[in-house]
Fold:
Amino acid sequence: MVLNMWEEDSRLPTDVIPEHYDLLLNPDLKNGTFSGRVEITINVTSAKNFIILHAVDLKIERPYLKNSSSSEEYKIIDEILYSKNEFYVIVLEKSIPPGTYNLELWFYGSLLNKIIGFYRSSYKDVVNGEIRLIATSKFEPTYARQAFPCFDEPCFKAEFTIQLVKPSGNNYIALSNMNQVGEVVDQPQPGLTIVQFAKSVPMSTYLACFIVCDFDKLEPVKSKQGFPVTVYARSGQANNMQYTLDLGVKTIDYYIDYFAIDYPLPKLDLIAIPDFVSGAMEHWGLVTFRETSVLVNEAVTSSVNKKYVSYTVAHELAHMWFGNLVTMKWWNDLWLNEGFATFIEYKGVENYQPEWDVNVQQLTDDIHDVLNLDAAVGSHPIVQTVSHPDHITEIFDAISYSKGATVIRMLENMIGPEAFRHGVSSYLKQFAYKNAETEDLWKQLEVEANGINISQVMGTWTRQMGYPLVNVVRSGDNLTFTQQRFLSDSSVTFKEDESIFGYKWDIHLTYVTSTSESKVNDCWLYHDQPSVSVNLAPGTTWFKVNHHQFGYFRVRYAPDDWQKIVNMLLTNHESVSAADRANLLDDVFNLASSGYISYKLALDVIQYLPKEHHFVPWIVASVKLKTLKRFLISTPVYMKFRKFVHKILEPIMSDSLWDISASDSYIERRRKIVVLELGCAMHLPSCVARAKHMFNDWLLNNSVKRDPEIRNMIYTTGLADSDESKWERVWQLYLSEEEPQEKAKLRNALTKIKEPWLLKRLIELAKDENNVRSQDFIQLLATISENPVGNPIVWDFYRDQWSYLVKRFTLNSRLLGRLLPCITADFGSQIKLTELKSFVAANPEAGAGAAGRCIALELIENNIRWLASHLLELETAFNEYEMNL
Ligand code: BES
Ligand code: ZN
Structure:
């Protein structure tokens, strides 16, 4: 059978190129529908008798094709919706020669039951309690085609002239990427107004944005370059955009300097959307945010909330250059967008809030988590082949974001920040308004790199999955480095020849030593080199490899050298930086858990912790101890483990920890919170009692709410041990809460109760969108599943109601795809493994959850082996401590 071209290839042909979209969209807020008209100017470069566009869930009418210069009309003999590839094809009576054409289409669609594409959202007006309706859009990666027929691939950049229809009254406004240039009242019918926007610069379809709403705004602030920055939010929330406005203006000013390229649009709007599927989206000129990612109300916002808002704003604004001005050619290079924006967001926040030490926080916010994920044999490389829309959404994952950001950070450290900035700026200038590939970036950076073969070095990090374990062996004053692939289970085998580099990397090794604490030494270990040796200065005791954890790898020292590090930490831990200490803790626990070293070493390293004043090493320790808790809690070893942890924490528990005052430095405040949270999580009696007391005080005695910094801990600790009546009270408080971040904290607390029937009830209540917005439902299930009582309930719900979940969120949902590994994270038995396998067998269609399923399966197998091989080892180690302390 001969296939038509649109059946053969899921990519659009490259000989029909859109140049301009003249687009009118008319959302009917009340009825939840929209209609539209688009006239696309296309440049046809070879004779064609059909034209393929993307369209999904649209009813298309009246296609009309004419030659742009002669106005000759071409007869369309067939229209085909080829849904497998999400194509709309028009077939022409006769072939058209190369030239410029205008294609006009009318179309109709629905705004309802979705939070992607062009959709309706609503909120309750705080003043009169009325439900207000808005229309808004989110297209990345492949949903512009749900709003208008278009060439929906990132390399088809075109200019857009947009018109939106809004209700004339009730304070409705229309917003889009560009500034408003005109209005036509009572068009297309009385009571409505057409809002016209300026023609855009060339951009990809996924960056287009259309909003019709009645939001408030704050007085715009001018950037240094002169364009206005405006923030919008629903009524009652605009004031909570003040922080974002200030941060936004300062960050965009900073990026204009950093990239040495002006912001090319005449305005920048930042808007909080009540229903938003992601954290935020970088629409050019009109950045949209989930409310919790952007609103800051000092009365409810904790420093962790504020940090997340800052990261998010800084991330999206970085995309104005990386992503919007220069866009990846195809989604296989998605990491160029997301990895880079994630990398730059830290610079943006460092510029705005230097006292936050975000360069150190990057370790716990991005790097450590992805090192864990990428240690699976079933991980994937940063650059990967994708074509199906499900697979495209799936790669918006930690590998693209966090590994992407981490290898870029490593590269910046290799060539130096100024050379790096210069290379990036030239790359952006060279490809402005165009598309680029990973290699294009390497080429520009190579110019600055002083002879380092960037393309080859970085290829070893981006074109194969995983990362190395660097082994370092000391003999006298000589160090020898070798490498092997690090796996979360060292006993798992893999085939080296499956990777083009044989799972070896080009590693820039850096180290500090006891004789040169502040001088960073370096050398290279290339992927095709068996080992490399260096000399230490005579008299060196300890040495620490991977300075500040700039390198994306782990380090294994010999037991003697670990002991020297332990001594250094116990006697003078500030000999190395906070980042180095965080790195040592993360490495030692992961090496132990994977079977590369003994757990005893990890327990030795953690002994210095009471002296630690920086919160980042504390976070690492806390994450590692909480992970151990999850494994051990259903085993008899738990008691000994708890005792071990209490011994570390008890000496530092004091009243002053609870006194989190504004005069504390940011670092001190965060340390106090991390320590208290760990104390509660580890059931330290004094800690839990105090938190519970505060909870009851607040809930039952109507006393003032506690400091937002510790509110989360108080709510969760208090509710974990509560009864039905207290749960019900918190549920009512949750329902009536107006502030999104506070609402999220209360919702989170509700998942901590230990009564199974209340957790079941919570899931049922949450199915109603009036109680829990769709954007939050999957996260809620994931949080309930972290509760040991809730886990089996969610697991049953997930399997029983799989068709409900798929119908509501679709198989294309990456959030749904990621839910499975959250639920199964602690599964550690053959029975559970069999349950998962039979679920997968019965439901073979995974959509955007294919990778999630592989991760879940591998994790369970690792957990089973972990329990078999480490329980006794840990028990023995805890016994030894008990005897020594
Ligand atoms: N471009 C993404 C939004 C996005 C996410 C589109 C997933 C399609 C699928 C945006 O820049 C982004 O990365 N948002 C993050 C938040 C950010 C602070 C890391 C998100 O939504 O999680
Ligand atoms: Zn992003």
